[in-house]
Design brief:
The protein is of the alpha+beta class and 263 residues long. The chain is 19% helix and 33% strand. The protein has helices at 2-19, 35-40, 54-58, 241-262, and strands at residues 22-28, 49-50, 67-70, 74-77, 99-104, 111-117, 123-132, 151-158, 171-178, 191-198, 206-215, 218-229. Strands 1, 2, 4, 5, 7, 10 and 12 form a seven-stranded antiparallel sheet that branches.
Amino acid sequence: MKLNRTLLAAMLALSATATQASVLLYSQNFENPDLAAFNANTGFGGKDASFSSVNDIYANQPAGFTFAQQWTVETLRVGGSQAWGGAGFQDPQSRAGSYVIGMLSSANDDRLGLSFNIGAYKFFNFQLDISSIDLDFWGGPFVPTGGLAPSFRLSLYDNPTGVANVGTATLLDSVDITGVLSSAPNVFNWTNHIVGLNTTGNTNGNVTLVIDELVGGYAALDNFRIVASDTQGDVGQVPEPAALALLGMGMAALGLSRRRHHA
């Protein structure tokens, strides 16, 4: 039993050390909109969607946090009965909840910016879900006939002033991600992505993440999780590799201890 307790203590200590190497900056599933703000701008045939700004609909989530956006970034209501002839936006994978963010790659260059201070951490890690979806209003449909997989560019910019923006200073790093086709224009088909953007070269820890849809016509975003870390791709939901290795050694040692006990 002494061996088991020693191993357990070492495993817990390493796990705590690994946890300190990252910090959760932001988590948002868009499930708590300001409904008054949402309903204020559903006109012009905007069934099951609102063109109110993201800040109007999701202000102070968390307190003091603000978005920056270029052109219109809509909020879509999932499972409604107005869009697409009453069929609404459908989510067979049950990953969207009741609300998602929608963005154009055509007509206007829609962009969404989120600004943070990441301190001295080496990586800005971003996890999100993306899906093709289309509108039958506001000038839509936008997705080409037959469908087109959405592609987004996720860019990290230096932001010395700390003011929310859509990328006005030095580009630090950029990654493109691509989703998959949807079975119908009103049906989500989600894919999950984790990217680790290098923070090297930032001035004072202030950075801005810019989301820009490149291809697809129109697409949706949901389930944001942003973590500052010294490990690329670490979003704080799985143990560090070192912790996993120690866990494996610990389990092996526990097994050996049990075999000796029963011998």
